[in-house]
Design brief:
FAD/NAD(P)-binding domain; five-stranded parallel β-sheet; Lycopene cyclase; eight-stranded mixed β-sheet; FAD/NAD-bd_sf; alpha/beta; 418 residues; 19 strands
C-alpha cells in the first residue's frame, strides 16, 4: 500500500496470527476499545487447523464469554490416594468450561459486526519487522501470496520447541466425553483431582471429571511427567478409571480428545522484534505449575488493549515474578521426587480455603497469603529446592510433541454400548 506521493504508507492497526484462544481473545479486547483496526489470520480448513478442544478456568460472575460456556460448577472435589474426598466451595468463584468451537463462533460473530475487524483465512509463513511496523506473509487457500502489514503483529502460534529450562515436565492427558446408561454424576461438582488411580514411577497421575448432565461428563486421565504416553496406555488408564474407580457401568464414548501442555521454568520471550510480539503459550501465558492458560490470556489481552490505547509497550508479563519463582520450586521438587505429588496437592486443598487457593493459582494473592500457603507445604524439601535452584543450569528441553494443545480423536472401539 502506498501513500499519496508514491511512498510506502506507514503500517496501521494490528495483525494477529492464529485464531485460537489467545488470538481471538486479543482481537475481542482490541475491538472493545473501538480504535485499533484488527486483522486475524487463521489457518484454512485442513491439517493445520486445530480440532475442537476444551478450555477451563475459574471466574467470579458472568464474564465476557459467558455465552460460550458449556457448563460450570459451584463446587470442587479432590479425592486423596486413600479414597478420602474433600468437597470445597470456592465462592464467589465458579469453575467454567468453554469448548473452542462455541468460543470461535461467538468471537467471529462479534468481529463481523465491528467495522475495523476482519478475519483472513490463510497459512502464515513469516512474521517480521518492517520499517514502522510489522509484516506477515502468508498463503491463501487458492495459492495466492498475501502480505499483511500493521503497526504491531502478535503471533500466537505454539512454539516449535520449548526454551532451555532447569525443569521441564509435561501435563499430558486423554479424555472421553461419555454418556452413561444411568445417572452417575453430580452436575454441581467438578472432580478437579482424583488420585485414586495408579501412580507412575516418576511424576503423578490423577483423574478429572467434569459433569455435563447426570448421565454425561468429560472424564480424563492426566499425568505430570517427562514424556507422554501412547494412546493404548491412555485407553487402558481411562478404562480402569471409569470401570474400577468411578464404577460408571455401561457407557458410550461419544468423542475423545488428547493433548500435551508444557510445565517448565524456561523463559518464553514475549518480544520477537521491535513490533512483533508472542502471546498465548508461545509468550509464556501457560501457568508452569498447573497448565492453566485461558484466564491468563484474558488478563494479558485486556492489558495489551489498554497499553495500545495509552501508547505503552504492548505486552506485559503474563505472570508475576513471585508466581514464577514459586512454580519453579514446585516443578523442581516434583521432578526430583522430594515431594509426593498426590499428598502435596491434597494437603493444599485440605489446608487452604478454596477461594484463596484458586486466587493463588491465578497469581492474585498477597505475599502474606502466600506465606501462609507455603506453611501448608513440605517446608524442608521446598526450602532445599529453593536453595539449589540458582545454581542449576538451564538445559535444552527435550523434543516434545507440539503444538501443545488438545487434539480431538476418534472414540475408542470396544466400549460397552448403552
Amino acid at each position: 500500500m502506498r501513500g499519496a506521493h508514491g511512498s510506502p504508507a506507514k503500517p496501521e492497526g494490528v495483525v494477529i496470527v492464529g485464531g485460537g484462544a489467545a488470538g481471538l481473545s486479543l482481537a475481542h479486547w482490541l475491538t472493545k476499545t473501538g480504535r485499533t483496526p484488527v486483522t486475524v489470520v487463521e489457518p484454512p480448513d485442513g491439517p493445520l487447523r486445530p480440532a475442537e478442544r476444551t478450555w477451563c478456568y475459574w471466574d467470579e460472575g458472568p464474564g465476557a464469554f459467558e455465552e460460550a460456556v458449556l457448563a460450570s460448577w459451584p463446587l470442587l472435589r479432590i479425592h486423596g490416594r486413600d479414597g478420602g474426598a474433600l468437597t470445597a466451595d470456592p465462592a464467589p468463584l465458579r469453575y467454567r468450561m468453554v469448548r473452542s468451537t462455541a468460543f470461535e463462533t461467538l468471537v467471529h460473530a462479534r468481529l463481523a459486526h465491528h467495522p475495523g475487524a476482519r478475519v483472513v483465512r490463510a497459512t502464515a509463513h513469516t512474521v517480521r519487522d518492517v520499517p514502522g511496523g510489522a509484516e506477515v506473509r502468508c498463503t491463501a487457500p487458492d495459492g495466492r501470496e498475501l502480505t499483511l502489514r500493521g503497526r504491531y503483529a502478535f503471533d500466537s502460534r505454539p512454539p516449535r520447541r520449548l526454551p532451555p529450562a532447569r525443569t521441564t515436565l509435561l501435563q499430558h492427558f486423554r479424555g472421553w466425553f461419555v454418556r452413561t446408561a444411568a445417572p452417575r454424576f453430580d452436575p454441581d461438582v467438578a472432580d478437579l483431582m482424583d488420585f485414586r488411580v495408579p501412580q507412575p514411577r516418576h511424576g503423578l497421575a490423577f483423574g478429572y471429571v467434569l459433569p455435563l448432565a447426570p448421565d454425561r461428563a468429560l472424564v480424563e486421565y492426566t499425568e505430570f511427567s517427562r514424556a507422554p504416553l501412547g494412546t493404548a496406555a491412555y485407553e487402558a488408564a481411562l478404562g480402569h478409571y471409569t470401570r474400577e474407580v468411578l464404577g460408571l457401568g455401561a457407557l458410550r464414548v461419544e468423542t475423545a480428545e488428547q493433548g500435551v501442555i508444557p510445565m517448565t521454568d524456561g523463559h518464553f520471550p514475549r518480544r520477537a522484534g521491535a513490533s512483533v510480539f508472542r502471546i498465548g503459550t508461545a509468550g509464556g501465558a501457560t501457568r508452569p505449575a498447573t497448565g492453566y492458560t485461558f484466564a491468563t490470556v484474558q488478563r494479558q489481552s485486556r492489558a495489551v488493549a489498554r497499553a495500545l490505547a495509552e501508547g505503552r509497550d504492548p505486552v506485559p508479563r503474563p505472570h508475576g515474578r513471585r508466581a514464577l519463582a514459586m512454580d519453579a520450586v514446585l516443578l523442581r521438587a516434583l521432578d526430583a521426587g522430594r515431594v509426593d505429588g498426590p499428598d502435596f496437592f491434597t494437603g493444599l486443598f485440605r489446608g487452604v480455603p478454596a477461594e484463596r487457593l484458586l486466587r493463588f493459582l491465578d497469581g492474585a494473592t498477597s505475599p502474606r497469603e502466600e506465606f501462609g500457603i507455603g506453611l501448608r507445604t513440605p517446608i524442608g524439601p521446598m526450602l532445599r529446592t529453593a536453595a539449589e535452584l540458582p545454581f542449576l543450569p538451564r538445559r535444552a528441553a527435550p523434543d516434545v510433541p507440539f503444538p501443545p494443545r488438545r487434539t480431538a480423536v476418534r472414540p475408542p472401539s470396544g466400549e460397552k454400548p448403552l
